[in-house]
Automatic annotation (TrEMBL):
Annotated Gene3D superfamilies: DNA polymerase, domain 6 (4.10.80.30), Nucleic acid-binding proteins (2.40.50.140), Winged helix-like DNA-binding domain superfamily/Winged helix DNA-binding domain (1.10.10.10)
Lineage: Bacteria, Thermotogati, Deinococcota, Deinococci, Deinococcales
Residue ranges constituting the RNB domain according to the UniProt record: 85-364
InterPro entries tied to this protein: HTH_RNase_II, NA-bd_OB-fold, RNase_II/R, RNase_II_C_S1, RNR_Ribonuclease, WH-like_DNA-bd_sf
Species the sequence originates in: Deinococcus lacus
Name assigned to this protein: RNB domain-containing ribonuclease
Cross-referenced PANTHER family: RIBONUCLEASE, RIBONUCLEASE II, CHLOROPLASTIC_MITOCHONDRIAL
Pfam families cross-referenced by the UniProt entry: HTH_RNase_II (PF23161), RNase_II_C_S1 (PF18614), RNB (PF00773)
Length: 465
């Protein structure tokens, strides 16, 4: 960490405010830093505040710098509309997520149909029932773009009261928008329907769902079989498999915790079912000529074979950026002819727009035009990009804090890329990548000590031992 200088300047209240504004990205210059002979940059201001003990190491300025709001939404909620809903409370519905999740927005059910078909139900929180196009709630959600998930706090895209009202399984029964796909054993969908429903949801962690699968619960076995067939079918259509380490980073007054996300089969099952929901929603929208933010992606720049960490690292770098457009197109990375994100309307604005369009069709209302969808997409993507960048930088900040608290620890790192004398290391336990000068081929496992951690610059050095 940055050490305190032998003589630290005393700052007046006005000087501290001036330096903090620069550190937060709310000012471009600082006379105080200039007088001290320091660079007038947010990083330099951050470093000074740390050296003087005016900011704790837990302070993260990245959301401020990027313009991502940290204030919760306080808008009032409208009343639930009076409307007919298909009663699915007789089905077992499971909201499966990480332990401690506070915004359950999707759940799964299965029905066993004649002829060997299985109907996969993906129930999604009916947020659009309360957030109508161009309402104050809609405009604020669009301005945020997405929920901001930081290691030390969550800033919801929508009011927390709305999350409590629409979250699946937070009440005895929950209103939902449900996507039904009649699936055969090969992973093909023979029919797709969308309904406004009422469901009874049981909340489970991934670990609890995995235990149900291992115990042979028919619902969970059917979900796993469906997901496996669907994933195999997408792979045959060119879907890319990318498996890189993931960690959960939590920070509070007691410090930082970095925990690897267990790679349970049920996690992959749930992810595949959510992919099927997005495919089904896109098919439904296309069938009825509804413009929605379809997610598209060009083919990869090159083929990368193998199942090693370096192969997965290289494969991810071949992916083109996902584009959102009002007309359908192929999503090459997923191996799908069309796709739309639909399972997180309380957390991602473009998912909410898809729901608004589906609801308009189901209720006979006038849907938004392609031009309106394109405008909303552009605005929301710009705002969500700031949110995602703030998340990424804040996570790295706290991961470096976690590592700095263990200065003598040796970490196992894998060389995932090599260019000349420079290599890129990946530390799986931290999901942290960093450059190093090392004459080691991709795939080589090294033991490293992390040194010279500088939080303001988010920099660290790896000393190969």
């Amino acid at each position: 960490m940055t050490s305190a200088p032998h003589t630290a300047p005393d700052l007046s209240s006005a000087q501290r405010t001036e330096v903090e504004l620069l550190a937060r990205g709310r000012a471009e210059k600082s006379r105080t830093l200039r007088d001290l002979g320091l660079p007038e940059t947010p990083e330099s201001a951050h470093a000074l505040l740390l050296r003087l003990g005016l900011w704790p190491e837990s302070q993260t300025p990245y959301a401020d710098r990027l313009g991502a709001t940290l204030e919760p939404s306080r808008l009032e909620l409208p009343q639930w509309p009076q409307e007919d809903r298909l009663d699915l409370t007789h089905l077992n519905a499971y909201a499966i997520d990480d332990e401690g999740n506070q915004d359950p927005d999707d759940a799964l059910s299965v029905e066993f149909l004649p002829g060997g078909l299985i109907r996969l139900w993906v129930h999604v929180a009916d947020v659009a029932a309360l957030v109508t196009p161009d309402s104050p709630l809609d405009l604020e959600a669009r301005a945020r773009g997405a929920t901001l998930y930081l290691p030390d706090q969550t800033v919801h895209m929508l009011p927390t009261e709305l999350v409590a009202q629409t979250g699946l399984g937070l009440s005895e029964t929950s209103p939902a928008l449900s996507i039904a796909l009649d699936m055969d054993a090969s992973g093909n969908a023979e029919a797709v329907e969308v309904y406004l429903t009422r469901v009874r949801v049981r909340r489970l962690s991934y670990g609890q769902a995995q235990a149900e699968l291992e115990a042979g619960s028919p619902d969970f076995v059917a979900l796993a079989d469906l997901a496996a067939a669907s994933a195999a079918l997408r792979a045959s259509e060119g879907a890319l498999s990318i498996d890189l380490p993931e960690v959960r980073v939590r920070a509070d007054e007691s410090g930082v915790r970095v925990e690897a996300l267990p790679k349970l089969p049920m996690r992959a099952t749930v992810q595949e079912c959510m992919t099927l929901a997005g495919w089904g929603a896109a098919i439904y929208a296309d069938d009825f000529e509804l413009p929605v933010p379809f997610a598209t992606q060009d083919p990869p720049l090159r083929d990368v074979a193998g199942d090693t960490l370096p192969a997965h690292w290289a494969r991810r770098k071949t992916l083109a950026r996902t584009r959102f457009q009002p007309a359908p197109g192929p999503h090459s990375g997923m191996g799908l002819d069309l796709y739309a994100q639909v399972t997180s309307p309380m957390r991602r604005y473009l998912d909410l727009v898809v729901h608004q369009q589906l609801r308009a069709h189901l209720s006979g209302a006038e849907p938004l035009t392609g031009r309106q969808i394109a405008a909303r997409t552009a605005e929301a993507q710009m705002n969500a990009a700031a949110t995602r960048t703030a998340e990424r930088l804040s996570r790295r900040h706290h991961v470096l804090r976690f590592a700095a608290a263990q200065p003598e620890r040796l970490w196992e790192a894998t060389v995932v890329e090599r260019r000349g004398p420079q290599a890129t290391l990946l530390i799986p336990e931290l999901a942290l990548d960093l450059p190093v000068t090392a004459a080691a081929a991709p795939g080589t496992v090294l033991s490293v000590r992390l040194t010279d951690i500088q939080l303001p610059a988010l920099s660290v050095r790896a000393q190969v031992t």
